[in-house]
Write a structure and sequence with these properties.
The complex is a heterodimer of chains A (266) and B (217). Chain A has 266 residues and is α/β, with parallel strands linked by helices. Chain A has helices at residues 45-52, 74-83, 99-110, 115-128, 144-156, 174-189, 201-207, 225-230, 235-244, 247-254; strands at residues 5-16, 19-30, 34-38, 60-65, 68-69, 84-87, 162-166, 193-197, 210-215, 218-223. Chain A contains 10 helices and 10 strands. In chain A, a hairpin with a 2-residue loop joins strand 4 (60-65) and strand 5 (68-69). Chain A is globular, with a radius of gyration of 19 Å. The two termini of chain A are 15 Å apart. Chain B is mostly helical. Chain B has helices at residues 2-24, 29-44, 47-62, 68-94, 97-106, 110-140, 152-162, 164-197, 208-214. The chains are: A alpha/beta (266), B mainly alpha (217). At the A-B interface, helix 2, helix 3 and helix 5 of A face helix 5, helix 6 and helix 9 of B.
Amino acid sequence: MDRESVITVRNLTKSFGATSVLRDVSLELSAGEVLVVIGRSGSGKSTLLRCINGLEPFESGSIVVDGMNVNAKTAKRSALRQTVGMIFQNFNLFPHLTATQNVALAPRKLRQRSRAEAEADALVLLEKVGLAHRARAYPAQLSGGEQQRVAIARALAMQPKAMLFDEPTSSLDPETVGSVLAVMRQLAQEGMSMVVVTHEMGFARDVADRVMFVDEGVIVEEGLPRQVLRAPSHERTRVFLRSILSDRDGADAQSSAPFEAARYDS
Amino acid sequence: MTLKLTAMALVFGSAAGIVVGLARASRRWWLRLPATLFIGTFRSIPILLQLFFAYYALPLLFHIDVPQYAAATLALSVYCGAYMAEVVRSAVGAVELGQRAGAAALGLNRLQAFVYVVWPQALRVGIPAAVGVYVMTLKDSSLASVIGYLELTGTGVAVREIDPASGSFTVLLGVGGIYFVMAWIISLCGQLLERRLAVPGFGTVRSRRVRSVTTVA
């Protein structure tokens, strides 16, 4: 399986002042792959994502996205960010614009699409995430799940090669979580390369090609979902999973002989 | 006269306010520092003194002739500008950090993010405060009379001199009434602008965070 690498992170180290947040982290995302990153709050998962699309500077290491080095100059940075879309936990929709205008803004300003073209494209994307009927609504008139789906459509409008999801459903009511996960599942099936930071273990189990457990800025464990989630090799992983999984899955995590998680060369 | 003075001061003041306010909010220290000094100075010194300085001190310092209306306009503009700068800075600061992140994540550069995402929101947030500064400027324009610029108050006072006994009340009431009407018009324009720019749910009174939690499709 020699698919091209869309995102390559090598020896990434990042601190916020005196606090070390990421320590020598390396990972690789192949085209069409879905990587789910799990871990406690403050383990560095969000920071990792933000470093990948250049929102956060880092001290050492290298990140290459679709051939572009993340440390390049500003003009290139825009190209970089257009290549990898990002979905935030608190949506970050633009409240003064309708759903359609939110989705159409970047294509209009960055791809020189006319307003009519951009809004027509936007409507198609909103249809794709099931919100064509809310095209003229403002973010404040949409539920959390709807806002997040608009955010996904907005990111898709730039035709990114990969997408980063930073706890996309953590701010949502349980009822709306499903609607967003469904859209993400669909994207995965269509071959989008995705890095998803989430606590939704069901999603990790069903959709992820690989699961990575990050703790205190270090990748503790990485491998196939059924390995990492059902039979983790590291105690820290076990402890973490036990703390968030239901009883049924907790039993799975504790049972069986240690299983050597396949390690990907990074 | 008052109209002209105030109008000019508001225009220059707003322009200066936007420039200085943005400079004050900038990440570049060489923009921030002069802006902070400017704001601090001209908000701390009474407008009266600024007027005197413009009219009496500047000609001495620079050996130029400073006519009354120029001095008054300059002082009032700078005064208005300093206050507007703070309004602009805090309005821009009120826009959530996440908005910039969202815009940046799409690939918009800092200028685009500012023009299309940050500024529209800051504008809506800042209107009430701006109206306050405008009305303040209008009222303080009355002080230009002390350097001899015959604007509304000065004229009123002069008219009053004609017949201090009977004329006083009427004149002062009339002058006060005119100021009131002008201030009211400014305030009304502000409200109309707010209404025209209003976007459902994006209010300055209600917290946005509360909205998104309680809103259901």
